[in-house]
Write a structure and sequence with these properties.
- This protein has about 675 residues and is of the alpha/beta class.
- It is about 40% helix and about 20% strand.
- It has a seven-stranded parallel sheet, with helices on both faces. It has a six-stranded parallel sheet with strand order 15-20-19-16-18-17, with helices on both faces. A five-stranded mixed barrel has the order 2-3-4-6-5.
- Strand 5 (about 110-120) and strand 6 form a beta hairpin.
- The chain binds adenosine-5'-diphosphate and magnesium ion (MG).
- Adenosine-5'-diphosphate binds near residues 284, 286, 287, 290 and 545.
Length: about 675
C-alpha cells in the first residue's frame, strides 16, 4: 500500500462507500491523509456532571428523555438528558435531526461540548458524542479527531480507514530540507501526518500542527517571494523626483497634507525614481485621503513625460476620480492631458482618446478595469494606479508588461485594513504604506446599536437629518426573501420605508441585480441629491464619496464582518457633517462582543485584527476570496509561527538552496504563486 493506492482496496470500502468518499474528493490513500480533522475532542479529561463549570466540557454519561421538535420553519431541536452517577444535565442540538435516531439510550457516551447558560437554562449545546465502545476511540488515545462530515461520510468511518493506512503514514518522505527542520525545531512529516490523525497526546498533536502549519506558511511566503523576484527581474522607467513641482502642487491644495500622507507620497517618489518596478500597496481607512496621493504620484510621472492609468472599481468612481483629478490639476498645464475612458464614452470619442494616448497628448487616463482590456497603444506607460484593491495579480502585471514593453510601476490603494500578520505572509511581495491618520477636517461618526423592535427613535433621528438637508443610506444584506437566513431584504425595506417610516422623502433602491448603467444612474441621482435616501445592498461599500450623506443604517448588522461594517460606516461623516451609523441587530438578543467592538472602536486596524481572530481571513476578504488563502492549519493570528516561517524563507534564500530540489514544496509554491490574486 502507498499514497496512490485507491481507497476501494481498504477493508470495509465497497462501491457505495468508495463513491461517497470520492464525492468528498477522497480517492487515494494520499487524499485521505491530506483530509485533516476539523477538530479534536479531548476525552481524556472527563468531568462529573455535578462538577460542571461553564465552558468546554467532556462527560461520560448515558442519554435519556430523547425528544425532537420543530420550533419554526428551518429550526429543528433535539433535546436529551445526560446522566452519570453524580447528576443530570440537559443537552440540546440545533438543526441536527439525525441525532435522535442515532442515539442509543442507556449506552455510555463521551459527550463533549460547550456547557453554559443558554436561553435562561444551563445546558450543553451542540456537543459531539462518541459511543464509549467505539473501537477507533479506544485506540491509544482519548484525543479523538472529528472530520468534516459531508453527505454520508462520518468520522467513525474515516477513523477506521485512517487506522488501516497507518503503515503508509510512518514511511512518508520528508518534504523540507533537514537543516530547516532542525533549525525550526519541527517534527518529521511522517510524524506530523501520523499525529494529526492519531494524536497520542495533546503535545504530539501540538507538534504535528506546528509542523504542518509551518509548512503552509513557508509555501505561501516562498510564493510571495517568487512573485517578487519575478517582478524585480523586469525593468520600469525611472521617474526623477522634482521638488518644485511637488511643492507647487501642494500649495495649490485646499488643505494641508497629513503627516501620514506626506510620508506615503515621499516613499512613492523614492520608489518610482528607481528602475526596479514599484509594487506598493497604500492602506488607509476610508476618508484618509488616498486619492490625493494617487494624484501626486500621477503628477510626477506625467511631468517626467510618462503616462498614468488610474483604475477604479466602478464607472461611477472613475467619474468621481476624474472630477477630483481635474480639480487638483486645475492650475497645472497637465489639466488638458487628462481623459476619462469608460464604457459610456462614444466610439468616436474613444478613438480620439486612443489617438491622443499614442502620441502622449493624453498622459493621465482614468477608467475601470475594462481599460486594461482595451487595446490601448500607450506612448510610455509609467504608472498604473488601482483604487480599492489589495493587489494586482501576477498575470495582469505580466499582461501590462507585454503591452507596454516595460513594467509600469504599480500602486494599489485599499481601505481594507490588512493586519500585519497577513501582510507579512500573503502580501510578502508588496511594499506597504499605511495611512494611520485621518484629516482633521473629518467630522467623524457616532455608532449606535439598535434592537429591531425599537427602531422608531432611529427613524425619528433620520427624519431630523433629512430635514436638515442631509441624506441617508440604508444597507440591507440581501435582495429578496429567498435566502434561508431571515435577514431584511432590500426590496422589502425599500417598499416599507417609502410607505411608512420615511414616507414623503425621495427614496432610491440599489442592488447587485441592476445592470451597470442602472446602478450608475441611481448612484448618480443620490450623489446629485435627487434622492434623499438610498436603500442598498453592499454594492455601495466601495469608495463612493457623497459628502452630504450623514446617516448609515445597516440592517442585520450582526451578519456582516467587522471590516465590512467599518467600511460602510466610513461612507458617512467624511466632510463637515457628523455621521450617524445605526447597527440594527437581526434579533433582540444582547449584542455580541463583535458588535460592541465596532460600536466602541473607530480604528479599522484594531477591528480587522479582531475579525481575523474571531472569524478568520474570510471575514475580511469575503468568502469569494477566502479559498485563495489555502491555510488549513496555520492561523494568521499565530505571530510566533509566522516569524519562524519568515526566518526559514530567509535562510533558504541566503543558503542558495534550490527550490526545485524539493519537488513537493516546489509544486505547492508554484500553485500558491498563481493563487495570490485576492480581488
Ligand atoms: P479615501 O482614502 O477614502 O479614498 P479620499 O481620497 O476620497 O479618501 O478623501 C476623502 C476626502 O478628504 C476628500 O474630499 C479629500 O479632498 C479630503 N482630504 C484628503 N486629504 C485631506 C487632508 N489632508 N485634509 C483635509 N481633507 C483632505
Ligand atoms: Mg478612495
Amino acid at each position: 500500500m502507498d499514497m496512490q493506492t485507491e481507497l476501494i482496496n481498504l477493508k470495509g470500502v465497497g462501491n457505495v462507500v468508495a463513491e461517497r468518499l470520492a464525492s468528498a474528493g477522497l480517492v487515494t490513500v494520499g487524499d485521505l491523509l491530506a483530509y485533516y480533522p476539523r477538530r479534536y475532542d479531548d476525552y481524556s479529561h472527563v468531568t462529573a456532571i455535578a462538577q460542571l463549570r461553564p465552558g468546554l466540557v467532556t462527560l461520560k454519561a448515558h442519554f435519556s428523555e430523547i425528544k425532537e421538535r420543530r420550533v419554526r420553519r428551518g429550526l429543528h431541536i433535539t433535546e436529551a438528558v445526560a446522566n452519570d452517577d453524580s447528576g443530570r444535565v440537559r443537552v440540546i442540538w440545533f438543526n441536527q435531526p439525525y441525532r435522535a435516531k442515532n442515539i442509543q439510550a442507556g449506552k455510555p457516551y463521551y459527550i463533549s461540548g460547550e456547557f453554559g447558560l443558554q436561553q435562561q437554562r444551563l445546558q450543553i449545546v451542540n456537543p459531539s458524542i462518541e459511543l464509549v465502545n467505539d473501537e477507533a476511540v479506544q485506540v491509544g488515545t482519548r484525543i479523538v479527531p472529528t472530520y468534516r462530515e459531508t453527505g454520508h461520510l462520518n468520522s467513525t468511518l474515516l477513523r477506521k480507514l485512517i487506522l488501516q493506512v497507518q503503515p503508509v503514514m510512518k514511511t512518508l518522505p520528508e518534504t523540507l530540507p533537514s537543516w530547516l527542520i532542525e533549525q525550526a525545531g519541527l517534527v518529521s512529516r511522517a510524524d506530523a501526518i501520523t499525529h494529526i490523525h492519531l494524536p497520542s497526546s495533546s503535545d504530539a498533536l501540538q507538534a504535528a500542527r506546528e509542523r504542518l502549519g509551518f509548512e503552509e506558511l513557508f509555501v505561501v511566503m516562498m510564493a510571495a517571494q517568487a512573485n517578487r523576484d519575478q517582478a524585480i527581474r523586469t525593468e520600469a522607467l525611472a521617474v526623477p523626483f522634482n521638488k518644485e513641482i511637488a511643492l507647487d502642487f501642494v500649495t495649490h491644495l485646499p488643505f494641508t497634507l497629513t503627516d501620514a500622507q506626506r510620508k506615503t507620497i515621499w516613499q512613492i517618489y523614492k520608489d518610482i525614481a528607481q528602475t526596479e518596478p514599484m509594487n506598493r500597496l497604500v492602506e488607509g481607512d476610508v476618508g484618509s485621503g488616498k486619492t490625493v496621493i494617487a494624484a501626486m504620484a500621477a503628477l510626477m510621472v506625467a511631468e517626467a513625460g510618462l503616462q498614468v492609468a488610474f483604475i477604479a472599481p466602478t464607472e461611477l468612481l472613475a467619474q468621481q476620480h476624474a472630477d477630483t483629478i481635474a480639480k487638483v490639476f486645475a492650475h497645472s498645464p497637465l489639466k488638458n492631458k487628462i481623459a476619462l475612458l469608460t464604457g459610456g464614452v462614444k466610439t468616436s470619442q474613444k478613438k480620439l482618446i486612443k489617438e491622443k494616448l499614442k502620441d502622449n497628448r493624453i498622459q493621465i487616463l482614468i477608467g475601470t478595469h475594462a481599460l486594461l482590456q482595451e487595446s490601448v497603444d500607450w506612448h510610455r506607460l509609467g504608472l498604473v494606479i488601482i483604487d480599492e484593491q489589495h493587489r494586482f495579480g501576477v498575470a495582469q502585471r505580466q499582461k501590462l508588461f507585454s503591452a507596454a514593453g516595460h513594467m509600469p510601476h504599480i500602486l494599489c490603494l485599499t481601505a481594507t485594513p490588512i493586519p500585519r500578520s497577513l501582510a507579512l505572509t500573503v502580501y510578502g511581495e508588496l511594499d506597504i504604506s499605511i495611512i494611520d491618520q485621518a484629516p482633521s477636517t473629518r467630522a467623524g461618526v457616532d455608532t449606535t446599536i439598535v434592537s429591531p423592535n425599537s427602531t422608531a427613535q432611529m427613524y425619528h433621528a433620520i427624519q431630523q437629518q433629512l430635514t436638515e438637508g442631509r441624506q441617508a443610506y440604508i444597507v440591507c444584506p440581501l435582495i429578496n426573501e429567498s435566502d434561508v437566513l431571515q435577514v431584511a431584504s432590500a426590496e422589502k425595506t425599500y417598499q416599507e420605508i417609502s410607505k411608512k417610516q420615511l414616507k414623503g422623502w425621495r427614496v432610491g433602491l440599489l442592488h447587485g441585480r441592476l445592470k451597470a448603467d442602472e446602478k450608475d444612474a441611481v448612484m448618480r441621482a443620490f450623489a446629485n441629491h435627487e434622492l434623499d435616501v438610498l436603500v442598498a445592498t453592499t454594492v455601495i461599500e466601495v469608495g463612493v464619496d457623497v459628502a452630504n450623506a450623514s446617516v448609515m443604517v445597516i440592517q442585520s448588522a450582526d451578519r456582516f464582518g467587522l471590516a465590512q461594517l467599518h467600511q460602510l460606516r466610513g461612507r458617512v461623516g467624511r466632510a463637515e457633517h457628523r455621521g450617524h451609523c445605526y447597527l440594527v441587530m437581526s434579533d433582540s438578543q444582547a449584542p455580541s462582543k463583535r458588535m460592541r467592538a465596532i460600536a466602541e472602536t473607530a480604528n479599522g486596524f484594531a477591528l480587522a485584527e479582531l475579525d481575523l481572530e474571531i472569524r478568520g481571513p474570510g471575514a475580511i476578504y469575503g468568502t469569494r476570496q477566502h479559498g485563495t488563502l489555502d491555510l488549513r492549519i496555520a492561523k494568521l493570528t499565530d505571530a510566533a509561527l509566522i516569524a519562524k516561517a519568515r526566518v526559514a524563507v530567509q535562510s533558504f534564500i541566503t543558503r542558495g538552496e534550490d527550490l526545485l530540489q524539493y519537488k513537493q514544496i516546489a509544486a505547492e509554491v508554484q500553485r500558491a504563486s498563481k493563487l495570490t490574486y485576492l480581488n
